[in-house]
Design brief:
binds zinc ion, alpha+beta, 3 domains, Rossmann fold
Length: about 500
């Protein structure tokens, strides 16, 4: 456990020093846990991840929407969050420390099955097993249901809540979607935006936040579509790293690369449409730069599933800091949400199928962006070595916060003028680039290695003679000369991985 904590501390101190993540925020006033600021490089990295996510959803025919982050009470009553989005907590009667009751019980008596127990049941269990405050041995008070939503008010006194997920706000638009999609289902939409969860005492830094950015993709469809999903045929030969719940029950947690067609045939996924969503989630994480070795898809045990979920799989990322980290959930929400909003709003949210009105089903891909952002920094960390006198970040080029750095060999006018021209061309081609004139070339390479910039360009006196520049590869620290007229084409290939650096030598 110690080494895990140490590695997380290495990553967080690097992230702080190099301008990725600051906090807890507001640092100036001591900080509140569960809140972080993104520095300039953290924000660039997040933008890149969002761009990848957006591109993947749009390619899969999802449309993006944006909804308010505050909604009145009736929305959360209908969604089930007022009643169901709760943690059971207990307060020490002596020192006042607050604990998650279920976690405390599980720590003391891991063999006990407390799933489904209400507050009274948990209070009784605490008495029965003689549980006391871990820090002062004082008696624990009665267990209370603590709602994780942040409350606010509209105007003088209308009760309202900050959304704990973007999904519910997307569902509220369903009638509008029907018109927009000309009454045709399936229809797919996604939303990227802030969500809030008032965790009791968030630990684990970036993994448990009170305010975070969520991405949730929703497919509205009919039951018959779930079994007959034409897009599934495009991916039947693709393989995913799967860990089924049956394997977990046998103590096996290593993923097995499984062909999609086999996964459905063997009943790992009940529905082809759901299987397609799991594959899409996997694709999104691949495009954010995670490799198969660091990724697995884990099926929830039947006891783990949320109140609305008929089947559930998670994308998990392996980190040095915390081991496997749950990063994305793929949920079969059934028609729970639309039915509830139909009931509470008294508006018709059904569609007509063969002369009958039915409430559509929902499949969902849901994840926060801060977790993959942290995991990517964790996965990209490389310690200093004989070859390189600094620790560095090996970000996949496509998501690196800065993709290209441009250096004039020296700050002289005859080098600055062509350098600025090249810098402009690189920016115009859509790369995130940085211009740096300060210090020796060695120092400048080092600075870029530290923030994970994959390619550095140097303009020297040879450039003036023959219009070639050097491109330096972060990973091998090797350089090649490229003609300026080929530069953006070469960079695009290098960033996308369609050109290998070695082939330029
Ligand atoms: Zn205590």
């Amino acid at each position: 456990m110690n080494s895990e904590r140490d590695f997380n501390e290495i990553i967080m101190s690097l992230a702080r020093k190099r301008g990725f993540i600051w906090g807890p925020s507001p640092e100036l006033y001591g900080g509140s846990s569960g809140f972080y600021d993104l520095g300039p490089l953290g924000k660039l990295l997040k933008n890149r991840l969002e761009n990848q996510i957006r591109a993947a959803f749009v390619r899969a025919n999802f449309w993006e929407v944006e909804c308010p982050t505050v909604s009145p009470r009736e929305v959360w009553l209908a969604s089930g969050h007022l009643e169901g989005f709760i943690d059971p907590v207990t307060e020490c009667t002596k020192c006042g420390q607050i604990y998650r009751a279920d976690n405390l019980i599980a720590e003391k008596s891991p063999e006990m099955n407390i799933a489904g127990l209400n507050a009274d049941g948990l209070t009784e269990t605490i008495r029965k097993i003689g549980l006391v405050c871990p820090s002062c041995k004082g008696d624990l008070g009665p267990v209370q249901a603590y709602n994780l939503m942040m409350q606010t008010r509209l105007g003088l006194n209308q009760e309202a809540y900050l959304r704990p997920e973007t999904a519910t706000t997307t569902y509220l638009l369903f009638k509008r979607f029907l018109t927009f999609f000309r009454d045709k289902l399936p229809a797919a939409v996604f939303q990227i935006g802030k969500a809030y969860r008032n965790e009791i005492s968030p630990r684990q830094g970036m993994l448990r936040l009170r305010e975070f950015t969520q991405t949730e993709g929703q497919i509205f469809l009919l039951e018959k579509d779930e079994m007959d999903w034409s897009q599934f045929h495009d991916i039947t030969d693709e393989k995913l790293p799967l860990v089924t719940y049956k394997a977990q029950e046998k103590g096996k947690f290593d993923s097995i690369m499984t062909k999609m067609s086999d996964a459905v045939k063997n009943g790992f996924f009940q529905k082809p449409a759901y299987a397609w969503c799991v594959h899409l989630a996997y694709t999104i994480f691949r495009q954010m730069g995670f490799s198969d070795e660091k990724m697995r898809l884990r099926q929830h045990l039947p006891t783990e599933r949320a109140h609305y979920a008929a089947d559930a799989w998670d994308v998990e990322i392996h980190t040095e800091s915390f081991g496997w980290v749950e990063c994305c959930g793929i949920h079969d929400r059934g028609n729970y949400d639309l039915s509830r909003h139909q009931e509470f709003s008294k508006q018709n949210l059904s569609v007509k199928v063969d002369k009958e009105y039915v409430v559509p089903e929902v499949l969902e891909i849901a994840f926060g962006i801060e977790r993959p952002l942290f995991c990517l920094i964790d996965n990209s960390f490389r310690p200093e070595s004989k070859e390189r006198d600094t620790d560095w970040l090996q970000f996949p080029p496509e998501v690196a916060p800065i993709q290209v750095a441009v250096f004039p060999l020296m700050g002289k006018p005859e080098l600055l003028t062509p350098s600025e021209k090249i810098y402009d061309a690189v920016m115009d081609a859509g790369f995130v680039a940085q211009f740096d004139v300060g210090g020796s070339i060695g120092k400048r390479y080092r600075r870029q290695d530290e923030v994970g910039t994959p390619f550095c360009i140097t303009i020297d006196y040879t450039t003036i003679e023959d219009e070639t520049i050097t491109v330096r590869d972060r990973d091998t620290m090797e350089q090649v000369r490229v003609h300026t007229s080929d530069l953006t084409k070469v960079l695009r290939g290098l960033v996308r991985g369609t050109i290998q650096f070695n082939s330029l030598k």
